[in-house]
Each structure stands twice: as C-alpha cells, then as structure tokens.
C-alpha cells in the first residue's frame, strides 16, 4: 500500500523527469503483464477486431482519465465553479482552456506509453488487424486462395507453414513501425513544446529552480499550519460542547479568502508573485480581490505553480 501511495504522490506533485520516467516504466510493465498473462486472442472473424482494439485502447483511455483525476490542477479548475456565485469562474474562457490543454498534455503520457509499448509488442495489433476486412484485402491481395479466411486464425496458429508465418511477420512489422512512429512523434512534440515554453519563460533558469523550492516549502508549511489550526479549532469546539461553555474567538479565513487563494495562478510582470497565496498576502491590503487584472497571463512553463496543490493521498 505504501508503494502505491508513492506512485500517487508522483502524479500529485509537480511534474518532474523522475516522476514521468517512473510513470512510463510502470505503464510499460503493466502492458507487458496484460499482453502475456491476460490477453488471449479469440482468433474469430467476428471478435478479433473488437477484442484487440479493447485491449489496445480502453486501458489507454482509463489511464488518460486517471491522469485528470490525479492532477491537482483539474480540481483547482473545477472545484466550486458550478456554484451559483462562482459561475463566472467557469467561464474564464481562454485561461481555462489553456490550463485544460496543459492538463490534457500531462495526462496523455501514460496512455501514449501504453499504446506505444503495445504496438511494439504486436500482440494486440495482430489480433485486431487479423479481424479487419479492409486489411485482409490488402494483405491477401497477392497471396494464395483462402488467405482472407485463414487470416483471423493467424495469431493463434502454431503451424510453421511459410504462408501463415509470413502473414504473422507482416502484421508484427506493421505494428512495430506504427509504435516507433508514435514514439518519434511524441518525442518531437515534447521537445518542441518544452523548447517553446522555456523560450517564453518570463524568468531565468535559476529563478525557476528557486520558484519550485519555494512552492514545495509553502505547501509543507501550509499543511502543517492548517493541521495545527484545525486541531485547535476542533479541540475548542469539543471542549465547549462537553462543558456547555462559549467558545473563545478563533479566527479562520472566510469563504471569500479560501476562494481567492484557490484560483488559478496568473503571472504579471509588474508583480511577479510565486503563488496565488503569495499574491493574496501581498495584495490583500490594496484590494479585496486578486482576480486577473490587466497584464495577467497564463504561461505554460509556470504550470507547476497550480500543480502544487494541498491534495493528499487520503483525499483521493
């Protein structure tokens, strides 16, 4: 159970090379287990295509949705936005769309890994492709009579006949080529996206490192102070209940205060705060609101700010 919590922490904490690498490794290992211990192609003209596609795509879809669930930014974006007074928050337009796109890109890592590893292995594709009438016409166009009828049985065939083995090798080759194309496409996209986002960074490389350290410490201290404050408030309320006394004054943030520090972070070069909480504390005396003002923008390279939520494993 502790190992599972460690894996969840890698999703919840700000993205890192180690976190992404471990998620990729676990996904690839899971696919190998499925393909060897669970997957059994029915070798049926009716079931090959849907069965193969289900194993290839449905786990990928599940991993994609899990990526949304485990992202702190998802819940920072959605929590409370359907309440009557917060509907304007839901209609934040371009800002919300950009943040959602960033969440989607991060959530796509595990499903793309699943599909790529599955294609390199070939089992799922061989089963699905052998049940496709379109591919059957292509593969059997210049082969022996009855090839299209035998194609669905190729993934299960132990026969060493050259014709069947040639079909199996061609299906595996197609699968592996598609897998390498997918891997190359993802790597190129990630490289371009990372390069552009870093190029547009409003701060230097070392300041970004300092920024991430600050957020980690802010999160640790916030959790500690929140736990201490909640414990004190709970003790006071229970004490007053059993003693039938009036509670002493215990200041807690208002609903409006909580809402403001829970909003999505936007960067303003005039006031470069390190978090929404940092912005709230420094602008509280100047204004009752820290909503986006002129000059505030969402910058992809600063997406880690919202990822540093207070979500913990026990809350999932």
Automatic annotation (TrEMBL):
Keyword line: Ion channel, Ion transport, Membrane, Transmembrane, Transmembrane helix, Transport
Output the GO biological process annotations, alphabetical, semicolon-separated: ATP export; regulation of natural killer cell cytokine production
Q: What organism, scientifically named, is this protein from?
A: Sciurus vulgaris
GO molecular function per UniProt: monoatomic cation channel activity; voltage-gated channel activity
| Residue ranges of the TM segments | 49-70, 97-125, 177-200
The family line of this record is: Belongs to the CALHM family.
Any one GO CC term of this protein is: immunological synapse
Which named protein is this?
Answer: Calcium homeostasis modulator family member 6
Q: Where in the cell is it found?
A: Membrane
| Major location (coarse) | membrane
Give the bilayer topology. Answer: Multi-pass membrane protein
């Amino acid at each position: 159970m502790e190992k599972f919590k460690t894996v969840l922490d890698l999703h919840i904490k700000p993205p890192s090379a180690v976190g992404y690498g471990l998620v990729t490794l676990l996904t690839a290992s899971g696919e190998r287990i499925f393909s060897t211990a669970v997957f059994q192609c029915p070798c049926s003209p009716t079931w090959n295509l849907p069965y193969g596609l289900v194993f290839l795509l449905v786990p990928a879809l599940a991993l994609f949705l899990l990526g949304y669930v485990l992202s702190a930014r998802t819940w920072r974006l959605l929590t409370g936005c359907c309440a009557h007074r917060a509907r304007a928050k839901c209609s934040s337009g371009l800002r919300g769309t950009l943040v959602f796109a960033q969440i989607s890109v991060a959530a796509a890592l595990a499903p793309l890994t699943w599909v790529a590893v599955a294609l390199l292995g070939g089992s799922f594709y061989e089963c699905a492709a052998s049940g496709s009438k379109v591919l059957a016409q292509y593969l059997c166009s210049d082969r022996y009579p009855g090839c299209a009828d035998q194609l669905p049985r190729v993934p299960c065939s132990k026969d060493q006949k050259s014709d069947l083995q040639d079909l199996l090798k061609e299906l595996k080759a197609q699968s592996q080529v598609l897998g390498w194309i997918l891997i190359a496409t993802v790597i190129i996209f990630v490289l371009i996206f990372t390069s552009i986002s870093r190029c547009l960074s409003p701060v230097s490389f070392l300041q970004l490192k300092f920024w991430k350290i600050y957020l980690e410490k802010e999160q640790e201290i916030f959790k500690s102070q929140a736990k201490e404050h909640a414990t004190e408030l709970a003790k006071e309320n229970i004490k007053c209940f059993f003693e039938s006394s009036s509670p002493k004054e215990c200041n807690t943030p208002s609903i409006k205060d909580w809402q403001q520090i829970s909003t999505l972070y936007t960067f303003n070069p005039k006031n470069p705060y390190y978090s929404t909480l940092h912005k709230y504390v420094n602008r509280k005396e100047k204004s009752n609101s820290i909503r986006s003002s002129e000059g505030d923008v969402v910058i992809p390279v600063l997406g880690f700010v919202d990822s540093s939520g207070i979500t913990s494993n026990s809350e999932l």
